[in-house]
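Protein modeling request. Please complete all fields; requests missing the sequence field cannot be processed.
Requester role: graduate student
Desired output: 3D structure, token encoding
Chains: 1
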Amino acid sequence: MCGIVGVLGKHQVAPILVEALKRLEYRGYDSAGIATVNNGTLERRRAVGKLVHLSDLLVHEPLAGKSGIGHTRWATHGVPSTKMLIL
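Delivered output (87 residues):
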């Protein structure tokens, strides 16, 4: 099970994405992440566990951008991880 949200706006979207993901918390998940586009560059943050871990990460490593996407994930294959998988 997972949830996906996206925002295209006029303001910074990282806080909006995290708030939208909080509305999906009841679904159960083991990791979450968001990605934003800022000046043509895609940046992302991922965290294992509850959304509070992602929120804490964003305090120390904020994301700028007025468009972005967020997701929660329930691992059905493999363990939750913040590493990027390259196929």
